[in-house]
Amino acid sequence: MNDERVTTIASVVGFDAASRRLARRGAFVQTPLAPAFTDRIEEVFGARLTPEEVVDRIVSDVQREGDRAVSRYTRAFDNRDVDRFEVPKHAWDAAWDGLDESLQDALRVAASRITAFHRKQTRPSWIEPEALGIFGQIVRPLERIGVYVPGGSAALPSSLMMIVIPARVAGVREIVVAAPPRHHGGVEPVVLAAAKVAGVDRVFAIGGAQAIAAMAFGTETVPHVDKILGPGNIFVTLAKQRVFGAVDIDQLAGPTETMLIADDSADVELIAADMLAQSEHDAQASAILITTSARIARQVPDEIDRQLGTLDRQDIAQASLRQNGLVALVANLAEAVALSNVYAPEHLCLLVDDPWSLLPTIENAGGVFMGEGSPEALGDYAAGPSHVMPTGGTARFSSPVNVHDFQKVISIIGANPQAIRELGPATIRLADAEGLGGHAASIRRRLDRNRPA
Predict the structure, then answer these.
(1) Domain boundaries, the chain
(2) Which listed residue (188, 347, 376, 387) is catalytic?
């Protein structure tokens, strides 16, 4: 064991100790604001408001004032004077032409895989006759969606494609993207290039809560949408929560997370690499190893230290591992899976001798990565399924972004006289039980008319 280890990562032994460390409930935990953020809020609003209060003001102002409020908050928080929010198509073309050819090819490969995967998920409308009439469902795409692409420490063209392409496959008629203004008031070129490849209709250089409000309620420039998707910081997340009801949202995304289950057959070098790949996302990210091997539990922290120095984002990865990383040693794989099912990780990596034998026991996960040849990094970019997955334990009840997120179902009821005769009495009884006499009368009148002369 290295007594001079650079990265401190928590270690526990036993199922009960691991359970206590992994206990959580709820999708979204708010982290304290950095002092610089708090100072900026006081400067803009004249008071030290909470994030919820900030978002409430921004959303209310945008709803009331439209573009004028969007401009004001863009100037205040992004330090940009933007004359025109919408990014013209010639800027998309220039962004694409300015990319290295290998990056163009990578975007095309990813787009092709994401498209092919989600085409297998489409579902048809159905209308079928039966003895009691004609019944069915019509599947219709949403009219217009909004996609938020965060700025932060790294541009995320992959997240744009992982949302936009399933929406296109679903048949959404118009897709708009909002992203924080960066280059001379514009959007990151690689994000514009991804928008071009994925089939986006319009891009707006707007960030933060003001972008969410603009898409939810519409402004003189930005059209209102039916659903808003995409990750973001605390203000974006709270804004999505605030506008829910006026529009649908995908989720209240928390920090990204990976859980690895490893037995003694797993490669220590690859385990460490996968944990670092997760940790470099953000200081709030979580990389958790559950192993049945004392050797692996002992060696992985040292291997993480060895690899850490090769990363450009080593400070972020180190902070993540110190704050949120965990190595847990348990007795067997059944205990490991039980911990995973309670924790409900966004990503679950099965680095075991026979991952397919464990799959039937997995109940809660955003995505399952089968074996050492299926690293999470592959899923983040080019495997095909959307990498926008439930976080914070919400994999207990929600799913990754998929085609169904962009469709709605309309029920069709075409009852015939036989249906009134056969189902009418039960309907009347239930209506009477609920004290809804008008409902019962509606059926009785039809029964009276259907009686033989």
Answers:
(1) 10-28+254-384, 30-253+398-412, 416-450
(2) 347
Residue-wise pLDDT tens digits, 208-247: 999 999 999 999 999 999 999 999 889 999 999 999 999 9
Q: Average pLDDT for residues 61-82, to the nearest whole number?
A: 91
pTM: 0.91
Tokens 């930005």 correspond to what residue?
A: 222
Greatest CA span in the chain, whole angstroms?
Answer: 96
- Of the residues 280, 346, 372, 376, only one is catalytic, namely 346
280 is known as an active-site residue? no
CATH class of residue range 10-28+254-384: alpha beta
Sequence-ordered list of residues with C-beta below 8 angstroms from that of 398, at least 6 positions apart, any chain = 251, 390
Q: Quote helix, strand, coil % in the chain, to nearest 5.
A: 50, 15, 35
Q: Is 269 a catalytic residue?
A: no
Q: Specify the DSSP class assigned to residue 231.
A: -
Residue position matching structure tokens 């040849």: 373
* DSSP assigned state of 123: -
CATH 3.40.50.1980 at 30-253+398-412, yes or no: yes
User: Is the pLDDT at 184 greater than 60, yes or no?
Assistant: no
